[in-house]
Amino acid sequence: MELAMELAWGLARKLADGRFHSGQSLAAEWGVTRSTVFNALQTLRDRGLEIHAVRGKGYRLPAAVDWLEEERIRSGLGVGGGYVDAVRVMQEVDSTSTRLMASPPPPPGRAVVCLAEFQTGGRGRRGRRWLSPPGAGVWLSLAWQFDRPPENLSALGLVAGLAVREALAGLGVDDILLKWPNDLVVADEKLGGVLVEMRAEGNGPCLVVIGVGINHRLPARLAAEVCEAGGLAPVDLATVNAAGAVPSRNAVAAAVISALAVRLEAVARQGAGDVRTEWRRSDALAGRQVVVETGGRSIPGRAAGIDLDGALRIEQEGGMVRVTAGDVSVRPER
Q1: Catalytic entry in 126, 199, 280, 331
Q2: If the chain, 334 residues long, is cut into consecutive pieces of 10 residues, what is the mean pLDDT of each piece?
Q3: Which of these is catalytic: 125, 276, 288, 302?
Q4: What CA–CA distance (Å, rounded) separates 311 from 309?
Q5: Is 65 a member of any domain?
Q6: Domain of 46?
Q7: Running DSSP on this structure, what letter comes out for residue 188?
């Protein structure tokens, strides 16, 4: 099985140029039969990779794919790279966050990063499956250890979302807002998301793993699957930046890792601080009528920003309600 997967991912990288490659030439290059090539490509299709097959021409991807490369990512880290001990790119993994949570933590004040082309068990908020076809986005997790839980730790998810938004803005991706608690949206369509997991021992070391998923170039059929799964309609960087240059996946990964590392280093020194002003500038819910589903009940009202600890404020006729966790939907304007 391991050799079969090695062949499959080797073929995926061979097809990265978006041009046709005949089954015969691929079989000859790897020293296997054309049937073996066909089966390996079917394995990739089963994982969501779209592959075109044309008789007399061979196989190709719909467009060139910028597969992730450790050295390209490390070389693009910039300032944040000074806090990153390791960057590992895996072809296939259950979940990058699960892998880091089960691994030895980095030293305090340092980060290790895991990226994957495909996750068999990628997770979104509230246990939802994160759909992640190979080459369609950037799926990564960053582990960071604090020597003790920082001040205002509950706001860390918002800090991470702001860091990712800042990273993408630096690459020329504008108009991104944050939908509480940590969805990245453009015109109410989901570009990506952030998921934070923690493991702490009293007032001792605190391990934080931040998972990030960003849509880069999604297959058309995926939108329907996401909506059927109960998620926001998705959008990708190729669509958002249709009029300009779309940043490469390696550039996106490097920018996000660097921004997260810089923010986490600041949190380690001075706590998460007051992110309310920065959140206000990027709040996708500000002033809108919403319904929050949390703890088996529905809370309607007008979104009125966040509190210092990151809780969402909901204004109702009877006063202000704080929500610390839940799913938010925007109500149609009357």
Answers
A1: 331
A2: 83 93 95 94 91 94 92 95 96 93 95 94 52 87 94 91 96 93 93 93 89 91 70 87 84 98 95 91 95 91 94 93 91 62
A3: 125
A4: 6
A5: no
A6: 2-60
A7: T
Q: Which two tokens stand for residue 116?
A: 């994957």
Note whether 14 and 89 are same-domain residues. no
My answer on whether 177 and 87 are in the same domain is: yes
Catalytic annotation present for 13: no
Residue with tokens 């453009």: 186
Residues 148 and 18 reside in one and the same domain: no
List residues bridging with 207 in a β-sheet.
145, 199
Is 190 a known active-site residue?
A: yes
User: Who contacts 35 (Cβ-Cβ below 8 Å, separation ≥6)?
Assistant: none
Distance, in Å, from the CA atom of 265 to the CA atom of 207, rounded to the nearest integer, reads: 13
What angle, 0 to 180 degrees and rounded to 10, lies between the N-to-C axes of helices 2-14 and 23-30?
Answer: 130
Asked if residues 322 and 307 have their Cβ atoms less than 8 Å apart, the reply is yes
| Shared-domain flag, residues 114 and 158 | yes
> Cα-Cα-Cα-Cα dihedral of 58, 64, 70, 71, to 10°?
110
Strands 137-146 and 111-119: antiparallel
Active site residue 334: no
CB 113, CB 88: distance < 8 Å: yes
Q: Of residues 179, 190, 217, 263, which has the active-site annotation?
A: 190
Which residues does 182 contact at the CB level (< 8 Å), separation at least 6? 125, 157, 158, 160, 161, 193, 194, 195, 196
Cβ atoms of 116 and 138 within 8 Å: the answer is no
